[in-house]
Specification:
Layout (H helix, E strand, L loop, with lengths): L4 E2 L2 E2 L20 E2 L14 H4 L5 E2 L3 E2 L5 E7 L4 E8 L2 E4 L17 E2 L1 H4 L1 H7 L2 E2 L1 H4 L7 E2 L3 H12 L7 H5 L21 E6 L5 E6 L2 E5 L5 E6 L6 E4 L11 E2 L9
Antiparallel strand pairs: 1-3, 2-16, 4-5, 6-7, 7-8, 9-10, 11-17, 12-13, 14-15, 15-16
Amino acid sequence: MFVRMRIPKKLTGYIAAVTTTVIAVLGVGFGCSGFGVGEALQERKGTNKIMGENDWMAGGVFNPEKVIRDTFTDIRDNVVYTTVKIGDQTWMAENLNYNPPVKDNEDSVSWCYYNDSVEYCDVYGRLYTWEKAKSVCPDGWHLPTHEEWKTLVSAVGGVSDIDIAGMKLKSVDGWKSNNGTNNYSFTALPGGFSGIGIDGSREYTNISERGYWWTADNMQYLYIYSEDNEVYVDTGEETEAYSVRCILDPPPINATE
């Protein structure tokens, strides 16, 4: 069993000075995977400049009616993913489910929940170590940075409703309690996570209760609770495995239409 507990860090806005570290701590609660308190992280730096003026609603929220839905086929295994374009960002609307090849003398780098049960992967995607997550997205896509996640949360939560961004990203079913509204078809699912238990074996926990997604920065991950409507961030460990959402690479700066 896992014995480490961690106080969640809300992805809701931070206060920083040139010579100081973040000083705002905007909430407490209990999650999994370690213990600590952390900085609040959500900023709104010129969000209205990123997207068209007509795409925004009151409070700085991106208009859900402007979301563009499409599909993408991963040619590595021919799996088809639903995608959503929210503002200038195009996200996979499903957790990645690519099983990367591993050489005979290498350790596994991804798993299906509950003793590698494929039926869980079919719904929740695979769980990846951070080292593998950094390179597992298909060509043209990448593991989102901390800033890219913040842009998403800011767009769906806006200024006045940032505390319910998680509800808008959650799927309408599949959560133990407090299902979401999935306003943007992002369909965040509570896929749980995997780590090493006190006996040294790989264990799995929190399915249907929490969803965790790696960022590309410093082994950080985002997570959403079943119990509330906010988005949190924390730091994982190299043996832990979380879900991956890929985001489309931005076009080259000198690209022409």
